[in-house]
Amino acid sequence: MIYKKNKLLIDRLIVENLAKKFSTPLYCYSYKKLRENILNIQNNFKKINPLICFAVKSNSNIKILKEIKKLELGADVVSIGELMKVLKAGIKPQKIVFSGVGKTQTEIEYAINKKILLINAESKSEILEIEKIAKFKKKKINIGIRLNPNTDAKTISQISTGKKENKFGVDKKTFLDLVLYVNKSKNLSLKCLSVHIGSQILNNKPYSKMLKIIDKIIKKSNHVFEYIDLGGGMGIDYAHNNNKFNLKEYSLNIQKFLKKNNSKIIFEPGRSIIGNTAILISKIIYIKKGYKKRFCYFG
User: Fold this and answer.
1) SS3 assignment, position 10
2) Are residues 99 and 150 in the same domain?
3) Residues 192, 259 within the same domain
């Protein structure tokens, strides 16, 4: 956004004119910024060539999803509704990962029927449910297991997902036990190690620690993972103080990791793609004088 002749503009459009044409309140997204964010990730990780799956929970607007599809991204979904939306947007099933802790039988069946790339499981009970459905359908299903690496992302506690007290994933011992279990199954194929440690991360140290833990657990598992899903969590500069996450440093750390582990990397960015692309346009409809201040009501 810029000001030009005392007018606020987004992608060369005058915000005031948008408010008059579409009424308020309304969200307005910058396609230019959306594309810039995606290209920034793609360019910084070019040597890795990851599968970038947009985290749909960050924005499920169907028009946004269609634009993301045009920019060759896949999707990370956590519900049947999100899965239906990304398929409607034209994202290919082989670019879709189904994450999340509470997948129902109906959701798992739908994902299997649509032949998506991966179902990332969060627990043994979920793995047993997937296996039961796969057995009934006489199919072999590609799954991932989410590891809880007990890594503190150093963000606020409400968005931490990688510490041992968090509900996500399984601990190292359970992970190794599940690898053995899945490898004996006739209806499951273990393709992926999945991990996600939190959101709004602006420092590479938590990711470096996470990669070291993953490297050790892979060696202990004695299993070759076709995919390593590193989740998302890369933060954005809300305060505009140039405190940006160093994508280049993260890329170099992953390249070192891949020298020892020949796997395809999956990313699940959400906020870092969509979080700074939109403005909420509203107008003052009432002003009320209070005891110590004036109150403005927007609509």
Assistant:
1) strand
2) yes
3) yes
Summarize the confidence of residues 276-294 as an average pLDDT. Answer: 94
pTM for this entry: 0.90
Question: Is the C-alpha dihedral spanning 102, 106, 65, 15 positive or negative?
Answer: negative
Q: Are residues 5 and 100 in the same domain?
A: no
The CA distance from 124 to 101, in Å, is 11
Compute the radius of gyration of the chain from its Cα atoms: 22
Domain of residue 7 covers: 1-29+280-299
d(CA 73, CA 91): 8
Instruction: Give DSSP secondary structure letters for 101-162.
Output: S---HHHHHHHHHTT-SEEEE-SHHHHHHHHHHHHHHT--EEEEEEB------SS-GGGB-S
Which H helix or E strand runs over 75?
strand 74-77
Task: Tell me the mean pLDDT in the region 78-93.
Answer: 98
Tens of pLDDT along 112-158?
A: 999 999 999 999 999 999 999 999 999 999 999 999 987 644 554 44
Asked whether residue 256 falls in the same domain as residue 128, the answer is: yes
